[in-house]
Amino acid sequence: MLELIGSSFILVGAVFLFSAGLGLLRMPDAYTRIQAGTKASTLGNMLVLIGLAFYHPSWTFRLILLIYFVLVTNPVSSHALSRAAWLIRTPMSASTVVDALADEQERDAQETQS
Hints:
Strand content: under 5%
Radius of gyration: 19 Å
Distance between the termini: 68 Å
Largest sheet: none
Mean pLDDT: 93
Number of domains: 1
Shape: elongated
């Protein structure tokens, strides 16, 4: 029974990992690719690691540490990549409506001038 539960978690995790790869191919610009890859791969990795915990209960503590590591590092690395892409002026998709970082910098520049 535990193997079935573990296999289910691994299968669902694999689907999310596949969707992350698909998102990297299908999204229109670097920023949405980073988001699609990060969000889906974070959940996919967590589900695969949870599934492995069902297969190998003695590994549970190590797998929890790995899940924590994934939860901490993926968003940070995603933010760093997006910020670096913005700083080197990587173009956004034509359908992008708001550039919040540019708006914030404009607001800060206006405040320093006043």
